[in-house]
Amino acid sequence: MREEEKQVNYRGVNLLREGLELPEVSLVAIMDADVEGFLRSETTLIQIIGRTARNVNGKVIMYADRIKNAMKRAIEETNRRIENSN
């Protein structure tokens, strides 16, 4: 991947992770969710999952070979927030 493609890709991921409030977003797919690191930490996963929070039909699909700690904690925190909002 060329350097400029990496920068565009990073900016796109960063916007998805932290930035835009898009109520139309109803599906987010997280590829390689089990590859822990900067873009797959518990906090980052929660932020990405939160992109669907404004849509009543929002869904998140995490593709992974196995459930890692960051994924498990992000799922637990998301479920806790859903329960507290009802």
Written description of the protein model:
- It contains 3 helices and 2 strands; from the N terminus they run αβαβα.
- With 86 residues, the protein is mainly alpha-helical.
- It has a two-stranded parallel sheet with strand order 1-2.
- Helix 2 (42-49) crosses helix 3 (69-85).
- It starts with a helix and ends with a helix.
- It comes from Thermotoga petrophila.
- One of its GO terms (molecular function) is ATP binding.
Task: Give a short overview.
One of its GO terms (molecular function) is ATP hydrolysis activity. This protein is mainly alpha-helical and 86 residues long.
Defining traits:
86 residues, mainly alpha, Rossmann fold, two-stranded parallel sheet, 3 helices, 49% helix
